[in-house]
Structure formats: C-alpha cells, structure tokens
C-alpha cells in the first residue's frame, strides 16, 4: 500500500489494446494494471501474468470437505455413539456418500469464494482508487506505474502513439482502504507531484 | 484474432440491433435507475400481501399445531411436501443454465443466466420453508444439525435421506448464492460507477465489494466461475437425486423405484425452464430487454422443455410398465390407484399426464416454439402439471394404505395449507420484484464478452467469411 504516480490511457477496442499492451511492455514500461469492463481472454497472457492457482486451492478445500465428512460420520457411528440400526454396518460407506459429496462441494465453493475475495481484496465497505469511471462501462483503461526512471511526458506520448485516448497522470493510493463511494476522501497530505517521483 | 470471433451462422444473433458496449450498459442499467413503474408497484404490493397471508397461515400452524392442516394417518405428507419438491424442482433451471451450459460453452446462457440464478435462489428459499414447518415444533428445527449437544451427545442419523436433504438443500442454496453473487460483483460495480445519487453510489459501492475490473481479478473471476460451474453441475443433479431418495429409499409401493433419481432430475429441469419462461417473458417486456432476451433464447428453452418433458413422459410409462412387469400386487395396486378413472384421485394423474407429456409435444413445431403467447401459456401449464406430478406421487401412493378402513378419507387441504403455499408465491415474487428493480437482470459483463461474436451487427460480417472456400478459410484462420 503506497501512494504512487500513474500514467493512465483508455482504449475503446480490444483489437487496439492487445498490440498496445505488447508494445508498451516491449518499450520497458511497467504496466500497473489494465482495467476492463468484461473479461478479455488472452489479455492476462499478453500482460505476462501468471496463471491463477485458484483451482488448486479449490481442490484442496474440496478434499478437506471430503475428509471432514467421512471422518466425522465415521467417528460418530463407530466411536462416539455406535447405534445398532437394524443390524446394519456401523460404517456404511454408500449411505455416507451423499453427505460426503455435499460437504466436498460446500467446502470447495465457500473456500474458493473466500480465497477469491481475499486475493482480490474484495469486501463490503472496501474502497479503491478508480482510474476511470468508464472502466466498468465501455473503456479498457491501461495504467502505467511511474518509476524513478519514467519520463512522464514520454510515457504519455508513447501511450498516444499506440492508440490510447484521454491520457492523463494520476497520483493515487494503489491499495484498498475502508471507505464509502459517495464520499471523496483524502487519504494523504497534498504533496506536490514532483516530490513523489 | 478473427478465428476467436468465429461463430457459426446456424445460431441466430444473441443480441439484436447495433450495439456498442456502452449501449449494453445503458439498456440493462436504465430500468434500475428509473423510478419504479406503476405496474411494478402493483405487482410488488400483491406479492407482499400474499406473503403476509402466508406468514399468518404459518403462524396458525406454529401456534395451533399441524392439526391446522388436513394431514391424516396415512397422508402424512400432503401439500407441504408436494410444494417443497415443486419449488426445489423449479430451483434447478438456474444452476443448470449457468453451470452446465457454461461448461458446454453455450453462448445463449448469457442473456438468461442472471435472472434464472436469482429465480433458483428464491425458489430454494421457498422450498426450504416446507420441511422446516412440516416438523411441527419448528423451534426445534436446529435438531437436524449435527452439533455437540447435551443429550449424549446424540447425533443425527447420517443414514437418513431426510438428513441428506438438509445437507443437499443447504449446500445447494449456499453454492447458488455464491455463484450468483460472485457473478454480480462486476455488474454492481458498473451500476456504482455511473450512479448519480449519493445513496445509490453508497449502496452499490458496498454491494460491489470495491470491484475495479483489474485483469488479474478477471482472470481469477473466470477461474472461479469455471470451477463453481464444475462443482454446481454434479451438485444440481445430486440435489434432486437426494430429494427423490426421500421417496425411493422408503418401502412404499409407488415410491420404491430405482428410476426416481433421473426421473426427478429431468422433471426438475422441465419445470425450472417453464418457470424461467414465465418470468422472462414478462421481464423482457416490462424492462424492454427484447434485444437481449431474444426469440432465439425463448426457442432454445422451449427445445429444452420438449426434451425434458418427453423424458418425464418416458419415465411415467416406464413406471407403469415396470409395475405390470414386476407383478407385485401392491405395486400394481398403487398404480391402479392413479390411472383407474374410478379412483378418487385419477383426475390428478390424467391432469399431470396431459400437462407434462402431451402438451409439450406442441413444441415440435417451430411456429409454436417462437410464439410468445403460446410459450407463456405452456410455461404455466407445465408448472401446473409438475405440481400435480408431485401431488400424484405423494398422495396417490399413500392415501390407500394396508388398512382399507382408512380408505374413505379424502384428503383436501385446509385454507392454511393453501395459504402457506400462496405465501411462498408471495415470498418468491417479492424477492423477484426487488431483484428486477435493484439488480441488473442480465449479466452485463457477459453480454459484452459475447457481443463481438454473437451480436447481430458483428455476426453479419461473418457471413462473408463463412461463404469463403475451405482453403481460403483455413489459410486465414487455421494458423492462429
């Protein structure tokens, strides 16, 4: 969590965005993120993001559920309170399958959604800086992070050359904070822009 | 990239009219930002009144006991369990559309999945009321949970299908809710970011969890949707399978059959799709979403209805055949008590047969599949038929048990039994009206995602490519 300076440019068409991302990366700029109104397949690869491991987490949560259900029901019926139900076995595996399956799905789904929210920092009352209000409507917003070696003007010109519109510079908190969307909040002292670079 | 956008012309456009991404946002979010219409207010008021009547009916049952209902010695399950199975069945279409059709990569699901999932959640909420209040002493309902208690601890019976139901329904509700809400996050953010009023900005700001649309988040979101779809697919099949076990594992003639799980699942999809049609035909008209929920969508769902209706028909005939083929006198008697016109409930059996098996056959005709009024009428017929299916299975199997002296009692519900049922309608439609007013009824981001592939204006451009020779087409697309 830190306040940083960003160069922001918007794209209207993903056909322009893809080559632009490639060129921007090739030119050595650091892409902070690209905000899009809908999932664009392949954009993550072009940006060089690694694949998510969320499925692996889901699998682990799932087998946790399987193990919990089987061991708990087994413990109840064989150790804690062995009931004789019509002379049937104390560990009737087929009769345990439905609940075992349901708990597998439940653990996996709940675990994955919580992990997803944790990784993406999503929760009620969480607020983040939005670089462009239309990033959830019809614009794909590319955000470059300014490092000590970035020349702002050059970066803006480069973005323009690859087809970006509405190019500007924003100083913003890159992480999240607790806040309301109907209120503007000052998270930091009004430092001059130059002192941040 | 062109090859990624390729989509066969066999399917019609899923979004009609010349649309840009912004148009999609406008069209879907506009009803949320407008003042509620007169029609909405009237509908909402009726729903709330029904709900209140339901609350009073339930109050009667809780205060005075199960005797407020007309259940008797042989008919221990009557309207309440019929309604339970009916609502759970309806709750199957949403997850089927959003999960199974996602796995099969069916583009048409995007127009209808959001509303169908919402319908699923509300239907399961309604369904859950019935077994809970059927317990009689509802304040002890928590006894079905396996928690360490001071009675031993005495655990629940994990071998009982009724307990499997507790796990199945609650898991199904939770997973459907998570699936629905995680899909809603990006769209709620869309509403938030264009909101002008302060309260709206705040409300959707809270609801959208701070969604930004980051590429990494989208990547995880896609992975999450896919795995949740993969989990929901067997889940949706398991839920109605387990509901059917409530019957199939008991030794009651007419219930004790192995065909029940597939037969129940097909019936659930059948009735669920009918309910989706009922709701969407009204919704698309009232919110003017005809360009997103097109004739194409309606026709495809009608095809699913005729398919599942026929599967249900085969199941009915198989049941009859097996009861004769098995030559078990009790089994044969149970079925004779259904189809024999001289028995008191034969009318319900034949009503079920005509609504579920005969009526949907009209959908073999394309003209009728694409006729809105006829589809709407059929969607009601199917749900009446599916209600009677559960009524037939429950009541006609148990109203004549092994003691003929008790045969004379004719089971008909009391006003409070009917009131409870009407009350769940109130709950269902109250929730649906609120959803249709305050939430995007169509998955905005998903529509945008398919817009350039399946939108009418984009599809027209593909006609030329499609008519190209094989060599030319392969030359242009295959190497990508």
Whole-angstrom Rg of chain B: 24 Å
Envelope shape of chain B: globular
Number of helical elements of chain A? 6
| Topology, number of strands of chain A | 6
- The CATH architecture of the largest domain in chain B can be named as Up-down Bundle
- Helical content of chain A stands at 40-55%
What do these coordinates show?
Chain A: Pfam families: ActD. Chain A: It comes from Flavihumibacter stibioxidans. Chain A: This is Quinol:cytochrome C oxidoreductase. Chain A: The chain crosses the membrane at residues 57-77, 97-120. The complex is a heterodimer of chains A (197) and B (480). By secondary structure, chain A is α+β, with helices and mostly antiparallel strands. Chain A is built from six helices and six strands; from the N terminus they run E-H-E-H-H-H-E-E-H-E-E-H. Chain A folds into two domains: 3-49 and 125-196, Alpha-Beta Plaits (2-Layer Sandwich); 54-119, no CATH class. In chain A, the strands form two sheets. A four-stranded antiparallel sheet of chain A has the order 2-4-1-5, covered by helices on one side. In chain A, strands 3-6 form a two-stranded antiparallel sheet. Chain B has 480 residues and is mostly helical. Chain B folds into two domains: 1-14 and 455-480, no CATH class; 72-139 and 174-414, Formate dehydrogenase/DMSO reductase fold. In chain B, 70% of the residues lie in helices and 0% in strands. Residues 1-5 of chain B have low confidence and may be disordered. The chains are: A alpha+beta (197), B mainly alpha (480). At the A-B interface, strand 2, helix 3, helix 4 and strand 3 of A face helix 1, helix 6, helix 7, helix 8 and helix 16 of B.
């Amino acid at each position: 969590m830190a306040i940083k300076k960003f160069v922001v440019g918007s794209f209207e068409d993903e056909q322009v965005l893809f080559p632009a991302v490639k060129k921007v990366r090739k030119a050595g700029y650091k892409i902070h993120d690209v905000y899009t109104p809908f999932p664009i397949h392949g954009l993550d690869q072009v940006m060089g993001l690694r694949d998510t491991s969320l499925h692996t987490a889901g699998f682990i949560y799932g087998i946790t559920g399987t193990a919990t259900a089987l061991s708990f029901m087994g413990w109840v019926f064989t150790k804690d309170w062995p009931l004789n139900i019509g002379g049937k076995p104390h560990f009737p595996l087929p009769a345990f399958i439905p609940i075992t399956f349901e708990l597998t799905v439940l653990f996996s789904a709940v675990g994955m959604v919580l992990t997803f929210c944790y990784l993406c920092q999503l929760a009620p009352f969480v607020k983040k800086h939005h670089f462009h209000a239309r990033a959830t409507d019809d614009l794909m917003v590319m955000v470059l992070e300014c490092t000590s070696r970035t020349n702002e003007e050059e970066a803006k010109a480069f973005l323009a050359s690859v087809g970006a519109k509405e190019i500007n510079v924003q100083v913003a908190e890159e992480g999240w904070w607790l806040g309301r969307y109907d209120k503007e909040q000052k998270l930091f002292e009004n430092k001059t822009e130059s002192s941040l670079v | 990239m062109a090859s990624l956008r390729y989509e066969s012309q066999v399917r019609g456009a899923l979004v009609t009219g010349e649309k840009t991404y912004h148009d999609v946002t406008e069209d879907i979010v506009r009803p949320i930002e407008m003042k509620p219409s007169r029609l909405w207010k009237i509908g909402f008021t009726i729903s709330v009144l029904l709900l209140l009547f339901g609350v009073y009916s339930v109050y009667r049952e809780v205060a005075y006991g199960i005797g407020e209902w007309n259940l008797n010695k042989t008919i221990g399950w009557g309207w309440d369990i019929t309604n339970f199975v009916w609502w759970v069945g309806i709750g199957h279409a949403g997850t089927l559309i959003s999960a199974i059709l996602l796995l099969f990569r069916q583009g048409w699901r995007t127009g209808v999945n959001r509303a169908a999932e919402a319908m699923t959640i509300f239907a399961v909420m309604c369904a859950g009321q019935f077994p809970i209040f059927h317990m009689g002493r509802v304040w002890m309902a928590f006894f079905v949970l396996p928690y360490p208690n001071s009675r031993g601890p005495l655990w629940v019976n994990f071998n009982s299908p009724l307990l499997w139901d507790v796990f199945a329904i609650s898991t199904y509700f939770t997973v459907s809710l998570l699936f629905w809400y995680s899909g809603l996050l990006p769209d709620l953010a869309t509403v938030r970011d264009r909101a002008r009023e302060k309260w709206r900005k705040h409300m959707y700001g809270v609801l959208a969890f701070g969604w930004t649309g980051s590429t990494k988040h989208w990547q995880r979101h896609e992975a999450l949707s896919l795995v949740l779809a993969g989990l929901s697919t067997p889940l949706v099949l398991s839920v109605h399978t387990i509901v059917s076990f409530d019957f199939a594992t008991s030794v009651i003639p007419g219930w004790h059959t192995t065909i029940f799980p597939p037969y129940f699942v097909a019936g659930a999809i059948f009735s669920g799709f009918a309910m989706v049609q009922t709701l969407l035909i009204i919704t698309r008209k009232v919110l003017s979403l005809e360009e997103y929920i097109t004739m194409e969508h309606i026709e495809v769902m009608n095809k699913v209805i005729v398919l599942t209706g026929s599967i249900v028909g085969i199941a009915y005939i198989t049941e009859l055949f097996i009861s004769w083929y098995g030559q078990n006198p009790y089994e044969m008697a149970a079925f004779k008590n259904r189809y024999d016109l001289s028995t008191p409930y034969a009318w319900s059996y034949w009503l079920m047969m005509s609504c579920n098996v005969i009526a949907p056959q009209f959908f073999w005709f394309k003209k009728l599949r694409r006729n809105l009024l006829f589809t709407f009428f059929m969607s009601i017929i199917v749900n009446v038929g599916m209600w009677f299916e559960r009524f037939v299975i429950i009541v006609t199997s148990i109203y004549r048990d092994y003691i003929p002296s008790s045969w004379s009692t004719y089971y008909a519900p009391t006003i409070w039994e009917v009131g409870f049922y009407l009350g769940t309608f109130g709950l269902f439609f109250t929730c649906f009206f609120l959803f249709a007013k305050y939430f995007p009824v169509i998955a905005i981001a998903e529509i945008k995602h398919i817009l350039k592939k399946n939108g009418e204006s984009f599809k027209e451009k593909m006609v030329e490519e499609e008519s190209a020779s094989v060599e030319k087409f392969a030359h242009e697309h295959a190497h990508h």
